[in-house]
Design a protein that fits this description.
The chain is of the alpha/beta class and about 300 residues long. About 40% of the residues lie in helices and about 20% in strands. It has two domains: about 150 residues, D-Maltodextrin-Binding Protein, domain 2 (3-Layer(aba) Sandwich), CATH 3.40.190.10; about 120 residues, Periplasmic binding protein-like II (D-Maltodextrin-Binding Protein, domain 2), CATH 3.40.190.10. It has a six-stranded mixed β-sheet with strand order 2-1-3-11-4-12, sandwiched between helices. Strands 5, 6, 7, 8, 9 and 10 form a six-stranded mixed β-sheet that branches. Belongs to the phosphate/phosphite/phosphonate binding protein family.
């Protein structure tokens, strides 16, 4: 009996310290919406290859149709790593504070880690401001997007008297397009009058700025930025974190954090695809960077 008890206690101690942590047989990376699924997979394939080499297991990429697919994958343990927007991270944290750990954050060319929600319209529509959007259709990407909904829903009503986000009040309609690329294409095609997306706000408008959804759309040949005009710009938003599932073995988390940390030095072209344009790669980040976004998200959902 004593021997059995001692063995049981030893096993419990080992489990507590992670010595008996379950070995992974594959590694699964989730990719938030923003582009069509195949383009997202193509942009991340280099990261998947490096991951397989580093961990010695097969790496699978998942590109769900919406942000919630990645969030639920992380919460349910079917996705191990993802680059989340700040609001998607807040949504994950509010459902389970222990589910994921923020480990790295993208760094802009000037060393900052912020970006903006950008309101835009077609130049030939004669819309140059939110005032010109009165009575028109405004498009937003995804309810779980920081720049594609959360921040605009807070800041746009503060930008002018009488502006609300209720469909049919100030704007003729407020619609969700499904993602950043969908918003850009819808505005460019004239399906909606204006929309919001994300960009670092650095560099040249005609390039789609240095990084972000507009830059990716330009690279893909989807838009000519000279045919679009900026009509609104948010305050600086903290760039979302690369997160790892907390339950992963410690050595896996350490290896993946180091891999992302060194990716820019290892392969700038891969970094360009993963981080949606020009950047300096990534640097460490903690939950503290996102406390204001978590509070904003709680307030928005009435939590």
């Amino acid at each position: 009996m004593k021997k059995t008890l001692v063995l049981a206690l030893a096993a419990t101690t080992a489990l507590g310290t992670g010595a008996f942590a379950q070995e992974i047989t594959e590694f699964r990376i989730g990719i938030l919406g923003g582009e069509n699924a195949q383009d997202r997979m193509n942009s991340y394939q280099c990261l998947a290859d490096y991951t397989t080499e580093e961990l010695g297991v097969e790496t699978k990429l998942f590109a769900p149709a919406d942000y919630n697919g990645v969030i639920q994958g992380l919460l349910g343990g079917t996705i191990d790593m993802a680059w989340l927007g700040a609001s998607a991270y807040a949504a994950t944290y509010l459902q389970d504070p222990e589910a994921v750990e923020p480990v790295m954050v993208k760094v802009n060319l000037d060393g900052s880690i912020g970006y903006h929600s950008i309101g835009f319209a077609r130049k030939d529509a004669g819309i140059t401001s939110l005032e010109d959007m009165q009575g028109k259709v405004f498009g937003f990407g995804d309810p779980n997007s920081t720049s594609g909904y959360l921040i605009p829903s807070i800041e746009i009503p503060q930008a002018g008297e009488g502006i609300t986000m209720e469909p049919g009040e100030y704007f003729a309609d407020v619609v969700f397009t499904g993602g950043h690329e969908q918003t850009i294409v819808a505005v460019n095609n004239g399906d909606i009058d204006g929309g919001v997306t994300w960009a670092d706000g650095q560099g040249n408008w005609e390039d789609g700025y240095n990084s972000g959804a507009l830059r990716k759309a330009v690279d893909a040949g989807l838009v000519d930025m000279n045919e679009l005009v900026e009509i609104w710009k948010s305050e600086v938003i903290p760039e979302g974190p690369v997160v790892l599932r907390t339950a992963l073995p410690a050595d896996v988390k350490e290896k993946m954090t180091t891999l992302v940390d060194n990716l820019y030095e290892t392969d700038p072209e891969c970094t360009y695809g993963v981080f949606a344009g020009d950047s300096l790669g990534a640097k460490p980040v903690t939950h503290a960077t996102y406390t204001s976004i978590v509070e904003a998200r709680k307030a928005e959902i009435g939590g």
